[in-house]
UniProtKB/TrEMBL annotation:
The keyword Disulfide bond does not apply. The lineage of its organism: Eukaryota, Metazoa, Chordata, Craniata, Vertebrata. It comes from the Eukaryota. GO terms for molecular function: cytokine activity; interleukin-1 receptor binding. Keywords: Cytokine, Cytoplasm, Inflammatory response, Lysosome, Mitogen, Pyrogen, Secreted. Pfam families: IL1 (PF00340). Coiled coil: none annotated. Belongs to the IL-1 family. It is found in: Cytoplasm, Cytosol; Lysosome; Secreted, Extracellular exosome. This is Interleukin-1.
Length: 148
């Protein structure tokens, strides 16, 4: 959930939104499957402390991906078999760098395809989960991961 306690909910087959859930509706929230990505072959140029991951929706074959839409990147959900397909170059859109801040217990996810762009949620409820290059200014790009 984001630092405002909003959970991710799958609103349509490929639309992820963030909202506050309480009581019985909390069963609607989706769980992210964070898969660590280890590239084959020579080591890539990923910087120190950067952990490349693929972000899937548990129970679905849906993964977050970052693609260019017009002039700016956009976040979408795509059906994929990332374990099989991820080694091809064009699939960097599925890779995000997990940036942990141990002192605050928070995490950010930066797009590998578009450095400087982070997964974000709106300050308003029921808005789609998106991507921004201005983290935590008009939206929330910082998350607390829950193991439940």
């Amino acid at each position: 959930f984001d630092i405002n306690q909003k959970c991710f909910v799958l609103e349509s087959p490929t639309q992820l939104v963030a909202l506050h859930l309480q009581g019985p509706s909390s069963s609607q929230k989706v769980r992210l499957n964070i898969a660590l990505y280890r590239p084959r072959g020579p080591r890539g140029s990923s910087g120190a402390g950067q952990m490349p991951v693929a972000l899937g929706i548990k129970g679905y074959k849906l993964y977050m991906s970052c693609v260019l839409s017009g002039a700016e990147p956009t976040l979408q959900l795509e059906e994929a078999d990332v374990l099989r397909d991820i080694d091809s170059v064009e699939l960097t859109r599925f890779i995000f760098y997990r940036l942990d801040s141990p002192t605050e217990g928070t995490t950010r996810f930066e797009s590998a395809a578009f450095p400087g762009w982070f997964i974000c949620t709106s300050l308003q409820p029921r808005q789609p989960v998106g991507i921004t290059n201005q983290p935590d200014q008009v939206n929330i790009a910082t998350y607390k991961l829950s193991g439940h």
